[in-house]
Amino acid sequence: MTCVNRNIIVDAILSGIADARHTYAAWTRNVGYFAWAPEYLITVSVAKAVWEWCAPMSVWPEFRLMDAMRDAGMAGAAGVPGRLDGNRRADLLLYRNGGRPHAIVEVKRNVEGWSRIAPDVERMQAVVAGGASSFQLGVVAFNCTQMASSSANGGVVLKDRLLRMAEAADSLSRPGWRCGLSSRGVSYDGHEYWSAAAVVMERVGPRA
Predict the structure, then answer these.
(1) What's the pTM value of the predicted model, to 2 decimals?
(2) Angle (deg, nearest 10), helices 6-27 and 39-53
(3) Does the pLDDT value for residue 208 go beyond 70?
């Protein structure tokens, strides 16, 4: 694959989350709920999917944020304030062929609402949309679950949660950047409803 676009990257990320669900179910002999799956399993599964789908991009886990910002050509990267302390590490950093960062991916587990990821989205926005750089995408990816109930409303509850999160994501779009929620819809495995989803910030202006 020589041309990797936004859709391919996002599809790979969502597939990686789904793969993590299937892996966790297999390891626990279909006893473990996806809500219990550890974040590191989801992160590694996403990294593997991106590496397989998005060649020739390289995938760097636990990459130091300050180094990523420097490589992306961000002016003033040495003075990152507050929560953007440069000693923080991005869960996954995607470099495009040629050596410049293309995307940052943060992974969260079992997100129950916007407040759970709001600080991560805020950080992501400050980094990838904070000035001229090579960054084209910022992604906060997560699994979302709802235990099944006898009234069979779990799917409705989860769909409503995703809809409200999509509205919150849409409200963050700004000139030069588009923000939205991508998801695979809601699945049911007999005991819980679940979805793979991601808040995606995408550059829509000219590339740096």
Answers:
(1) 0.92
(2) 130
(3) no
